[in-house]
Amino acid sequence: MAELVEHGQLFIGGEWTDPLGRDVIEVISPHTEEAIGRVPHASTADVDRAVAAARRAFDEGPWPRLSLDERIEVVGRIKDGIAARHDEIARVISAQNGSPYSWSVLAQALGAVMVWDAAITVARGFTHEERRDGVLGRILVRREPVGVVAAVVPWNVPQFTAAAKLAPALLAGCTAVLKPSPESPLDAYLLGEIAREAGLPEGVLSILPADREVSEYLVGHPDIDKVSFTGSVAAGRRVMEVAARNLTRVTLELGGKSAAVVLPDADVGTAVAGIAPAAWMNNGQACVAQTRVLLPRARYDEFADALAAAAGALTVGDPLDPATEVGPLVAKRQQRRALDYIRIGQEEGAKILTGGGRPPGLERGWYVEPTLFGDVDNSMRIAREEIFGPVICLLPYDDEADAVKIANDSDYGLSGSVWTADVEHGLDIARRVRTGTYSVNTFSLDMLGPFGGYKNSGLGREFGPEGYGEYLEHKMIHLPADA
């Protein structure tokens, strides 16, 4: 059994502070099903303290009044601190949520460094103030920080999503309260240490691990000016409902059921090599995962066989083993959910091509085999609902118009990809699929461009100047004629 990591304090306003409540969050390893950590469960009284500190820091403190270059200097030290401790961060995240260590290094830890770095690049190049010729005279348009931000992040990519919210918010001059998921609070303590060492002024950042009830209290707090939330559609709707009581601005990054469209001219090896890691990334626990793969009927068997072979070759096991490609799901409820969907898919008439249960030899831990369903119809629940596990659906299509129709026939619109020998043809498909991000003959997420979704996949954008702008208000100042 790994040594139990215990933290007895909360990070409030930049200081390690005793909690006001007595509740505790126990962190359970999804590999061993044993406790690996224990941290305080923030109370609503702790939220009040954190928000009050953030309010004071924004209204009266130096942070919003520093120059952009001064804020960049501090934020740059946070980025460098994460980079210096990236292996430690990756191991902590893998131990908490089952993410394979190799993926945690690249996506969880170094991916977060890239987010912080890209946000600095965007802020440096952003126009915060400009003069324009108005209809009635000269005007000055300013972009000013929105205020106190509640950043609510999920368990699947905790540092990456925290960076997506905190980096632009802090650079814009906002103060923030970060609310990590109760499944993955341990890495947030490392972030608190790094932020403190970087020299953030008093009150600028607080970190409060807590459950949904306390999260709802934070989101509905009257002194919060902006909520940035990543999570499920159901939770996103609730966040929007609660925030609406105070007309609090919201950014919501929610779920996905993204389609990878394989065109008839695609190369089998290239397409499968790109789709497989995009489908089963992070054990299938990724909102952008390519969970629907659309195949031309004329080449369906060829591609299905190749994808089944790729799935069957994935190494499943201990998330901290560098050889592991698929680890356990984060919690027993997620394992049960995935297995329930596998049963539902069979009842609906889909055919299991590989996987379909617990991996042999892994009786302990919340594991599910990488599973590939064939002969899936887009009306089936396994094709329409987000499973958030290693379960992928293959859907045949008749022609290109049918493929685009199936790709768009979803309540979601977050990601997608197309695989073809003709890049310009692929770009035409990309323009026709209604989704917030798309890839042609690759799968990627660029931190200098806007990321977000259509339909139930969310509101607003993260990354790039569009994401940075989510943390700014626009002010118009009328100038005299001779200005």
TrEMBL record:
Q: What keywords appear on the UniProt entry?
A: Oxidoreductase
Question: One Pfam family for this entry, by name?
Answer: Aldedh
Pinpoint the Aldehyde dehydrogenase domain residues: 16-477
Residues at the catalytic site: E253
Query: Span of the secretion signal?
Result: none
The entry's family comment says: Belongs to the aldehyde dehydrogenase family.
Name of this protein: Aldehyde dehydrogenase
Can you name the source organism? Streptomyces levis
